[in-house]
Amino acid sequence: MGQSVNVESRWRTHLCDLRRGKHENSYLLNAWVKYGENSFEFLLLQECVEALLNDLEGHFIDTLGTLSRDKGYNLEAVVRGRHVLSEETRAKMAEAKRGKPIHPKTLAALVAHNKGKVRSQEFREKLRKANLGKKASEETKAKLSESHKGLSLSEESRVKLGNSNRGQTRTEETKAKISKANKGLKRTAEQISQMSAIRKGVKQSPETIEKRAASLRGRKRGPLSDEAKAKLSASLKGKKHTAETKAKMSESHRRRIVKATEAPKAEPAP
Is pTM beyond 0.70 here? Predict the structure, then answer.
């Protein structure tokens, strides 16, 4: 599918290049060689004024699907003002760029171009599917970690992240991975301070409180190490509980005593 202001001249150029085996479209040339000249037919679909050439070409390419390998031989096109490439061309371009580092100036220009852009839900879904199952290398992970260091999220971003994760149920596999990644991880004093500031004043729902209580119920903890005791003491030093917190602690303590006294005593052995 193509366009021209001089159709006969355009067709003669195509025909000459194909016969000489020097055509720029390798996919079309391979088909020409394989099936022979007699298998191809040249047709004029529509005549129009020059100003409408791009629009009509894009319309026919989009309608007939000639960017698809099983329907046509177009490698690229301008459809509705967008420059569209075929899957084959995209794959070749991606392969050519693979492993090549992006120049810092190019990277800065890309970041500036994309800053403030709001992606549509359709675009996000395509991006999610494209990255599904991909595993980042250790080098990539290290680069991502370094780029996010010291980055502080705005209040709006935090709210969006919270809303996007709300109600999501993680699989046991995901939970295990998160647990493994955080095991033995020591946070800096700055990180602890930031996390504390973020959580300050946040009230947990009764459902969340019950879930946490259920997960801790029946769990037996071993004696605390001297280091853990020192840390706990330092974190509580100078802290003053509110009247509400004191009342809750008192009620919790009272329930434990009642539960202990009501527990059935073991009968003495005969």
Answer: no
